[in-house]
Design brief:
Alpha/beta knot, two-stranded antiparallel ribbon, 9 strands, binds S-adenosylmethionine
Length: 264
Amino acid sequence: MRFDILTIFPQMFSGPLSESILKRAQQAGLIEIVLRDIRAYATDRHKSTDDYPFGGGAGMVMKPEVLYRALADTLGMLAQVDAEPERLIPLPADHPPILLMSPAGELFNQRLAEELAQHERLVLICGHYEGIDERFRECCVDREISIGDYVLTGGELAAMVVVDAVARLRPGVLAADSTAEESHSDGLLEYPHYTRPALWRGQAVPPVLLSGHHANIARWRREQRLLRTLRRRPELLRQARLTEDDLALLRRSGWEPGTGDVTP
Ligand code: SAM
């Protein structure tokens, strides 16, 4: 899978994307991350990427042409775009999803990560300052993605979050079963983990985990997932895939199906 990232700060990506699992995934050819410096597509003497907002107000706005040229090069249509500087050239019909990082976008979650991981290529655009010129957004952005209800200084950290969450879902990046029961994989949070020693400073591991009884361990883990989700994020239960046994356990623990709320 290929990620094209358009940014005015490509150096920001060198640490996070070149360590650990993402580093190994790139070395193994499972993912490719291509950084494109938006500033290289500025046409003026000062290589400016932003300008004052029409109508006044604080901050600067990223210029549409420089973003458009950077995107055009990403999609292999820069020569065409430069040959007709007065016209908006339509993007190829089969272009990869073009994602703008934006606090005003749809909230990023595991479902969206799974959906994006189905594609062979994604283009991620990192905004800065007050954001980008609306005309570029209208012509060229398929989706706006927010990583949370807060405002970052730029889209780079958001793009890294998206790349990380999507890349680890690609076949071969992680061991096959490691994403199966983790938090948010099926609407529930993950069960607690324990490792050696079995007794640590007087704190024992739950005996069932030492029993070697796989069915009992699986049942215990499922219950822990349900109870943890109920206590921490009861609203997730409304969307979770629950069995009759799950519902019975949750009801015994005070959950009312359909509300997601715990009765007093
Ligand atoms: N003026 C914008 C607003 O109020 O919506 C905020 C702009 S923010 C300072 C600059 C850039 O950071 C945005 O264009 C976007 O690319 C990125 N950004 C900020 N917060 C984000 C978030 N929660 N999720 C994704 N991207 C974000």
